[in-house]
Design a protein that fits this description.
The structure is a single chain. The chain contains three helices and 22 strands. The model has no long low-confidence stretch (mean pLDDT about 95). It is about 5% helix and about 40% strand.
Length: about 300
């Protein structure tokens, strides 16, 4: 892996991007352009912050988050790959895959304009990762930061056999008061309710939060919106290559047991995750690739 001096010599962009030591000794990329500021950890290719100019933060990072090599960070946009949730057959394998807890390498950076900064990163495979996932599937994360935030997860099957993956961009959004927000665009959608043992249900009206919510909306490629009357804004979520949307808030009891969500942290975060999970796992033929793309922007 390249050290800080090497990263900055090769990939820093004047007045836009610099690599520096982050919390817990993690290496981070700090972005400051004319449209937004952001912070990305090279561990997990995890976006931790994104704040358009003149806005409240859009991405939520827990004030009690732990920054430890090999451990997931609470908040931001963890990359869940190549499976979502528990592994299908190995209980001891890491939940939500391993991509969010291992190093990624920087492949390229660019500034298409004064208001956009782009990073391209690739997951670093090791003997440890191959023990969890023995398939030859190079995966990249493309992050474009500006007035809009675009994230793209690109998985290529370089092997000789088909592979099946689950994936999600586990985005934590900052909200004024989770009890007052509504998620629009999932009306009449079928979902699996994890809180009730994955019972299948149909959404009636907007999604509202008044207790623990852990739902997988399946067969649902639609865009959706987080309407936030407290912060007086709407967060628009557009996506391609995604057939699932996960909505999650742990609520009071579960949040208290987690230890890294912070006091009343649950009240100011809501996860709306774009991906392909449960009924919507992705088959990738040899030589083919799959692209999961999401875009976020704020509207007032």
């Amino acid at each position: 892996m390249m050290d800080l001096a090497g990263l900055n010599a090769r990939f820093a962009i004047q007045d836009a991007l610099v690599f520096k030591p982050g919390p817990g000794g993690l290496v981070v990329a700090e972005v400051e352009n004319q449209a937004a500021s952001a912070l990305i950890a090279l561990q997990g290719a995890q976006l931790m912050r994104w704040t358009p100019r003149g806005e409240e933060p859009v991405i939520w990072l827990s004030g009690a988050a732990r920054f430890t090599p090999g451990k997931s960070i609470r908040g931001g946009v963890p990359v869940c790959w190549p499976w979502f949730g528990a592994h299908a057959s190995e209980a001891g394998f890491p939940a939500h895959g391993y991509a969010r807890t291992v190093p990624w390498e920087v492949l390229a950076t660019e500034a298409p304009s004064a208001t956009q900064t782009r990073l391209v990163m690739r997951l670093v495979e090791t003997d440890a990762t191959r023990a969890w996932w023995p398939h030859d599937t190079p995966v990249e994360c493309h992050i474009t930061l500006g007035e809009t935030l675009d994230l793209e997860l690109v998985t290529r099957n370089a092997g000789r056999e088909p592979v099946t993956i689950g994936e999600a961009l586990h985005t934590y959004f900052h909200v004024g008061d989770v009890e007052r927000v509504q998620v629009l665009g999932l009306e009449d959608g079928e979902y699996l309710d994890k809180v009730e043992g994955f019972r299948r249900k149909t959404q009636s009206g907007p999604v509202v939060i008044s207790g623990e919510v852990d739902r997988v909306y399946v067969n649902n490629p639609a865009a959706c919106v987080i309407s936030d009357p407290v912060l007086q804004r709407r967060i628009l979520i557009d996506k391609h290559g995604s057939e699932s949307t996960v909505v999650w808030n742990p609520w009071i009891e579960k949040a208290a047991k987690m230890g890294d969500l912070g006091d009343a942290g649950y009240r100011h975060m809501l996860c709306v995750e774009s991906g392909n999970v449960a009924d919507n796992l992705v088959d990738i033929a040899p030589g083919e690739q799959h692209r999961l793309w999401v875009s976020y922007r704020v509207e007032r």
